Structure formats: structure tokens, C-alpha cells
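Standup notes
- HV: blocked on the assembly model, inputs below
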Amino acid sequence: MTELLEYECPCCAGKIRFDSASQQMKCPFCDETFDIATLQDYAETINGTAETEMTWESTAGGEWQAGETAGMNVYICNSCAGEIVADATTGASSCPYCDSPVVMSRQFAGDLRPDLVIPFKLDKEAAKAALKKHLEGKFLLPAAFKEENHIDEIKSVYVPFWMFDAKAGARIVYKATRVRRWEDSNYEYKETKYYSVTRAGSLAFENVPVDGSSKMPDDLMESIEPFDYRECREFSTAYLSGYLADKYDVTAEDSVERANTRIRQSVREELRKTVTGYDTVDEQKESIRLSNGSSKYILCPVWILNTTWNGEKYLFAMNGQTGKFVGNLPVDMGKFWRFFFIFWLMFGAIAFAVIFILGMMGII
Amino acid sequence: MKKLISALSAALMLCCTSVTAAAQGAEPVMLSGEGGFSPVWILIALGIGLVISLITMLVHKSKLKSVRMERSAGNYIKQGSVDINVRREMYLYKKVDRRQKPKNDNK
């Protein structure tokens, strides 16, 4: 069985978890707080390595069929010996029987160890408040959604990300035009001058994030950017205690294409900004090369909220560090069309009044 | 929203009242011809109203959608790292088009 890590309070032996408000480890039973490094030293001294013993007194039920256990891991809780079933990528969870926070240390061992972690700064109440604020001021949101909406699930998850650093060298050639118009008594003239414009240079990128979990929708994870990487910490399993966490199942090699797409677009935009003074500018040829590329594996804090309304599932996410909240909401199409026709008639009447007055005055 | 609708309704009524009052004291106008009322105005006004109404409602609808893929990595450009060292502009050729002005025959 895979090894589980639990951190015990030196005062009362309760199961201790990471507190986002104080950024330290806090015991929920005696309220004592401890520095992470201190607690790790204490855990190493006191706990050592526990031997796992699996003795079944009786066999019950059937056997797993071939393929049923693929992608699943089974753990035994150190506190209550309850069985914890989790998928192959789960790195931290809680025991469903005694609610003790558990960290599956092997998921983050060796090559799988994250380089950095951004600790949670916002708690569950902040997530609920952010959802409430997200629903306010939305004219076309069905009223029933706000009234009947109940959160099905709210969970704090450390999502695995790949962060890419690179230097981009680029050379782009544009075809641009300048247009001049004039007229005489008989003709109207339009002169178009054509230019070849070249821009070349370099720019550096750091920490371009790409979601390393296939379970998390990529558009949802990109919508809660950016994270403040100045608050990154060296990885420690202690930060995961009390939260859910997944290890990556999308490799850096598979993620690099997405990073390339975003970097390429940024390079185009930066060079295009420098081409000014033309009426039209079209890109003719581009050459973008990356160098000094590197990647880091980092766990980022995300609050995930699920809700169901009218048979449809709605997924919301909040950046667990900055509080940025996103999530698509339903549209009341009846209200949309109702107000469309009302505004059409109103603006049409105002436009007619203005045109009529101008017409009567002989201006048009 | 209710206040906005009330204000717009009041403006509409004021316009209608002004037009009616002006028409009561005015000479009859031709439906077409110079300086007169043209039915095209109604179509233009409906077109303007349609466009403004559509834009307004689409703006409100877009506020309900906040999940989208990022197009670029602009937030991750290292400060001070942008270095454009080649800026070249080369004139190629020019083209001149001319169009004869419509002639007004004054008879």
C-alpha cells in the first residue's frame, strides 16, 4: 500500500492542517500554530516509517474484475484504518470516515515532486462570498438561478501546472499601405502606396502556465490566471494537509504546445504594436525561435464549486490566492428578446425624432 | 433598469408631443421631394434602433460568460526584456485609382 502522511500536533496529537489565514500549520483542536519546518522536523523524529500490514480476517463480496481497478489506488487511513479509494492522480485527500487530512506522499516523490507550491490564501467562506458577488448585477441571469441555486460541492484543490520559461527571437515581415485621397472638378483620386515593413527582436517569458491535469478544464484554469508567483514556496507536503491535491497526468512535453501557442501570439502582438502610421498592415512572413526553454512543476490553489440548475451542471472556479472568480452563467433568453424589442422600439423612436428634426431643418 | 425605461418612455412621449405640435401649425408636406418627410427615415431609424438594441443586449449577455481560453501570454513577458533591434520600412510601389464624379445636369 502507498504510504500516507499525517501531521500530528505536538501538543494534543490531533491531526494538524495548513491554515490559509496564518500561512502556518494549525491544530483545529487546540488552536496551536506551528512553523512548517519545525513541524516537519518533529514529524521525522517522532513518526519514523510505519510498517504497513494488511491482514484480512475475512473475505467479503466479489473480486475486482479485470480492468475495474485500473487507475485506482487504495490506501489505509493511519488514524482509523478506514479504506480510502482514490484515483491514480490523487495526491491529497481526507479520510471519508474520520475526516483526517491525508497526503499520499508517493504521488509527490522522486521525479513527481513539485518544484514549488503556492499556498492557499483564501478559505471556504471567501469562496462562497465570491460566488454570491459573481451572481450580482447580471441583468440577463434568470432570477430563479439566484434563488434556487445551491452549491452541490465546494472543494479546495491544489492543481498541478507546468510553468514554462523561454526567450523568443522573432522576425516578422509585413505588407503595409498608406492611402491618400483627393479630388478635382472631374475625378476622385485614391493613391495607395505599398511598403514592406520588417520588425525583428527578442523578448523573454517566465512562468507561462499550462494546466497539467486532464481532470480540470483548461479554459477554466486559464480564466483564473494570473497567479502571483512571488508567493511561491519550496514544495512541502505539509501545505497539502487539509486540501485535495492531484499530481499531473499531462506531461510537460504534452503541455509545451499550448505554451508555444500563447508565446507565439504574444510575440506577434508585441512586434505588431511597433508598426504604426499605416492604413493597413498584413503579416506576410514570420519566424519565431525559442531558446533557453525550461519548465517547472508547481501546485496552484484553486477553489472548485459545482452547482446544478434545470438539469444542467455549472462549474465555477476561484483562484485560491488572488480571489479571481469565474464561471459561465445561464442566460434568460425570454428576457433577452423581450428587452431587445423594447430597446429597439425606444432607440428607433429616438433616432426617428432626431432624423425628423434634422430633416425639417433641412440639414438632411 | 425600470428607471431607464421610464426615462426613455418620457423622452419618446416628449418627441411625439413636439412633433404633433409642430405638425399642427405647419404646412402640409410632400411625402417625397426636397425638404419633405421621407419614408426612408423610418427605415433608417429602425435600422439604428436595431443596431443599438442588439449591441446593448449582446453586451449584457457577454457578462454572463467569464470562462475563456487566453489568447496570449502577455502577462508573462519579463519586464524590460522586449528588445526590437530591426525596424526597416521599404517603399515598393504605388497605385492610383480615379473615379469620375457624377455630373449634375441642370436644365
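- HV (later): unblocked. DSSP finds two helices and one strand in chain B. The first helix of chain B runs from residue 2 to 25.
- Next: hand off to the docking folks.
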